[in-house]
Write a structure and sequence with these properties.
alpha+beta, Alpha-Beta Plaits, 61% helix, protein tyrosine kinase activity, coiled coil, transmembrane, membrane
Length: 401
């Protein structure tokens, strides 16, 4: 009996196309039905809208104050604490919460543009775009308005407020330096007065020891001159007016020498009195010289104190001048501090709103036609696959028993 073989190369694709064509009403009908139902269902999906506004960053620089970086403002604008305040504003306005806070913050975006990016510098635009995407036209606009207002109120003066705080600190430091200057000036005045007093006292004691008019002739009256010629010179010299101890001691010694030359008795009463007076004057001069040495030491110490106080005053005055220039720069920066009064566009010292959000017209989600088209294509493909599977199962030849 001949064996009949099946043609393994038999084309099975054409019959399946014919089968699909005969049953085309199923994938086409189901696709249309799914498209219509999806389109209708998308009407019940909340509409989401997007709106934007512009904020300008004041980048003026005063003294050594760094310019406000727009990237810093972007970070501040997306601060969770700030967005929590916006979240609460929405709840209070519409009487319902806008959803989970973690998802809520993702619907806010702040960005700026890079104007120049080189190896030397990176220039960022001072204009920041704030964008909100949310459900409902009025809700979206309200969120952006609240975001702008909260941003200006909380961070609109963050740099100028820092300048104000630093100015207060520097002003306190200047006050401390001025207090130290006044203390140094008081010390200088006391040292100067004490120095004048000690110098006057020293001059008086020096005058007692050796008057100024006797300074030139004093060497003639020193007891070191013992030879006869010098004694004769001493005898012939007129005796100056005894205005000081040294001159008086010289006069006493000269009188003693005159008496000795004239042949007077060394044990006479007059010589004894003169010798006693000489010893007393010598002792007094020694004590006075000791006091003068102490006064000279005190005067030198006072002069050093006065010099040190003067140097300290000069140093602190220079420090105060530098700090005063720094304070002037801080006060100039702090002068731009401004609180928004609630009228017009929100404005502050560092940030200023350039445009308010408008009521959005076009929704960004859902895109009903696109979603319905995708659903129809998916339904058509799935129905086609189902028909092919059904056809394949029906054409399988079961083995005979």
């Amino acid at each position: 009996m001949p064996i009949t073989r099946r043609n393994e190369l038999q084309d099975t694709f054409a019959p399946r196309l014919v089968y699909l064509w005969k049953n085309k009403r199923w994938p086409v009908g189901i696709a249309l039905a799914v498209a219509v139902l999806t389109y209708i269902a998308m009407w019940f999906v909340p509409e989401e809208f997007k709106t934007s506004a512009i904020v300008y960053v004041n980048r003026f620089q005063y003294y050594d104050q760094h310019q406000v970086n727009p990237n810093t403002v972007v970070m501040l604008a997306e601060n969770p604490e700030l967005l929590r305040a916006v979240y609460d504003d929405f709840t209070q306005k519409f009487g319902r919460k806008p959803g989970d806070f973690e998802k809520f913050v993702k619907q806010f975006e702040a960005k700026t543009e890079i104007l120049q990016d080189t190896t030397v510098r990176k220039e960022v635009s001072p204009v920041i775009e704030l964008t909100v995407e949310f459900r409902g036209r009025e809700e979206t606009r309200f969120l952006l308005e609240s975001w702008q207002r909260r941003l200006i109120e909380k961070f609109g003066n963050f740099a100028t407020a820092e300048a104000r705080l630093r100015a207060e600190k520097v002003a306190a430091e200047i006050a401390q330096v001025e207090s130290e200057i006044r203390a140094a000036e008081a010390q200088q005045a006391r040292a100067s007065a004490e120095l004048a007093f000690q110098q006057k006292l020293l001059a008086e004691k020096m005058d007692l020891l050796a008057p100024a008019e006797l300074q030139k002739v004093m060497p003639l009256y020193q007891p070191r001159m013992q030879d006869a010629s010098n004694l004769q010179v001493l005898i012939q010299q007129p005796i100056p007016k005894p205005e000081g101890m040294v001159s008086r001691l010289a006069r006493v010694r000269l009188q003693i020498e005159k008496l000795k030359v004239s042949g007077a008795d060394a044990n006479s009463t007059e010589v004894a009195q003169l010798q006693a007076e000489e010893r007393l004057l010598s002792s007094s001069i020694t004590q006075l010289e000791k006091e003068i040495a102490e006064l000279q030491s005190q005067v030198a110490a006072l002069q050093e104190t006065l010099s040190r106080a003067t140097r300290e005053i000069d140093t602190k005055m220079q420090t105060r001048q530098v700090m005063q220039r720094y304070l002037d720069g801080l006060r100039t920066a702090a002068a731009s501090y401004r609180e928004w009064d609630g009228t017009g566009l929100p404005t502050a010292g560092d940030l200023r709103v350039l445009s308010q959000p408008v009521l959005p017209e076009l929704r960004v989600w859902p895109k009903r036609t696109l979603v319905a088209g995708i659903a129809a294509v998916a339904a058509f493909l799935l129905t086609t696959v189902w028909l092919l599977i059904q056809n394949s199962l029906s054409t399988i030849s079961l083995p005979r028993r």
